[in-house]
Amino acid sequence: MYEMKRNHYLVLEILECLSRKMSSLDEPELHECLAYDTILHAAKHGIIEIIDSMRHANPDLMWAMDKNKRGIFSHAILNRQEKVFQLITKIEGHKEMIASRKDVFNNNMLHLAAALGPSSYLDSRSNAALQMQRELHWYKAVKDIVHPKCKEAKNVDGKKPRELFTKNHESLVKEGENWARDTARSFTIVGTLIITIMFAAAFSASGGRDSDTGVPTLLRLRKRAFKVFILADAISLITSSSSVLIFIWILTSRYAENDFLWKLPVKFLAGLLTLFVSVTSMMIAFGAALYMMLKGHRGIIMAVVSLAVVPVLVLIPTLLFLSFEIFISTWRSSLLPDKKG
Fold first, then answer.
1. DSSP state of 118
2. Which pLDDT tens digit goes with each residue over 130-166?
3. How far is residue 336 from each of residues 145, 179, 339, measured CA to CA in Å?
4. Alpha carbon of 109 to those of 55, 85, 87, 160, 341: distances in Å?
5. How far apart are CA 148 and CA 237, in angstroms?
6. Contact 299, 212 (CB under 8 A)
7. HSE on the CB side for 239, CA within 13 Å?
8. Which of 28, 255, 288, 310 sits at a 20 to 30 Å CA gap from 12?
9. Which ranges of the sequence are coiled-coil (predicted)?
């Protein structure tokens, strides 16, 4: 770690020296020392330190273009480099000009955003649905900064940006749909099992009824524990039923491109949350039932509950991890380059 930090510090020192030298060079000299190629390469790989240092040394470097007339922001969009693209908000007076640029294929920035992101970027999301959501966030972020006429402009192939986006993401939409259906189907099975168990437990764990009053025997003998059991059982039954209905809703939903932006993630979050509450309540009801039947045998109760928790500990991390990933991907989308910068 020390060596890495030391090397990083030395590189920054070298970069500062080079930037001071570049501040006094004219355009031919900048081409000769490959300064324009360097800043384009930094944009492709998201090396923001190089870009910042070079643009402060010589602002003209921000206008660098490759043979296809693509500048640093075009490469930032193609390679999904968020921090580089955010710099467009810091270029006063030229933002609109840059956002309206076209390459040799008559592609504007929105056409480039319509291209499928690199695999290294997409693989940072665990499933195709979240990958599609991220691609939509990028397209929307670029759409917010370009001139309205760019949204209907055609490239050399006669394609509008949205048409190009649909074509390039057709397979990703299908993969996202398959993942959503398979995941919803799996959780529907889990929820159905919980419904079956908790419905049966609600009527079989009462310990019979008093012949005179009709009150459940365990309610009379273990009043507090029985109330905990019934309450946890009811919560588990209701939440698992809600979860199953939500996942069935997901299974029967349509899967248009824009559904991956908000509708599908929100449905999944609701289904996962209710399923998590259901599993937790089921374990509380199980513990209360054991306490009622084995009161005084604390060692046996602790041993059985400890073993019963094992399968739950396998399921709950999966639910929490998926819920957390969906939440972060959906509600932290503003961290992408957008009109706020």
1. P
2. 999 999 999 998 998 888 888 899 999 999 999 999 9
3. 13, 24, 10
4. 21, 11, 15, 12, 16
5. 51
6. no
7. 19
8. 28
9. none
Q: Which of 1.20.140, 1.10.4160, 1.20.1090, 3.90.220 would CATH assign to domain 174-333?
A: 1.20.140
Q: Of 110, 10, 94, 111, whose CA–CA distance to 55 is shortest? A: 94
Closest C-alpha among 163, 166, 81 to residue 132: 166
Structure-block tokens of residue 143: 């759409």
Q: Is the pLDDT of residue 282 over 70?
A: yes
Tell me the residue ranges of DSSP E strands in the chain.
none
φ and ψ at residue 209, rounded to 5 degrees:
-125, 150
Listed residue (69, 66, 60, 39) closest to 51, CA to CA: 39
Positive or negative torsion for Cα 334, 335, 337, 341: positive
pLDDT one-digit tens code per residue, 22-51: 776 777 877 777 888 888 998 999 888 888
Q: What token pair was written down for 334? A: 């503003």
How far apart CA 261 and CA 161 sit, in angstroms, is 18
Mean pLDDT (whole number) for 5-12: 74
Look at residue 167 and give its three-state secondary structure. Answer: helix
Residues 119-146: b if buried by 16+ CB within 10 A, e if exposed: eebbeebebbbbbbbbbbbbbebbbebb
Which tens digit of pLDDT belongs to each residue from 56-68?
888 888 888 889 9
Q: Residue 195 — very low, low, confident or very high, per pLDDT cuts 50/70/90?
A: very high
Share of the chain above pLDDT 70, in %: 87
